[in-house]
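Now for a sample.
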Amino acid sequence: MTATRISIRSARGGEAAALAVLHTRTRTAYYTAGGLPAKELAGAEQISAYWERAVAEGRAQVAATLDDRVVGFLMTGPPKFDDIDATSVRELQQIGVEPNSWGHGIGRLLHEAFVRRLHADGITDGVLECWEPNARAQAFYASHGWRPDGSRRLGPLGRDYVRLRVTVPL
């Protein structure tokens, strides 16, 4: 599979349950890479309502193959941080790629979709949180220009989430 055969589109109403399952797989890969035991993570049934809301609100996009199989997702929205102006910054809330599809450019396509969404809203600044122990995620975001802004909050295993920011000129 190559990124050239992947399309990015809005998530469809009937896809929320499948997105919850995919999110469970991507979360497991993300957190276990940092040393968190998989048994400590919520399953798809616990996060299904989260995805139903995100899809209904139009905050979710998916990466799909030619046969419309979803292999990744992107969720954006107003930042949840009290010290960030929601009128001038958007939060990249989730990027997830099916772990067996890593390394094929899908994450890059999803990130490009995030930038397009920023620009469509007339915004150039993004914010996200990344769990510090996940070196792969840290490297991915750094390669796209994201930099720590000094804000941190406690995460699993006593390891911090690091807040990252990016500016992408119009």
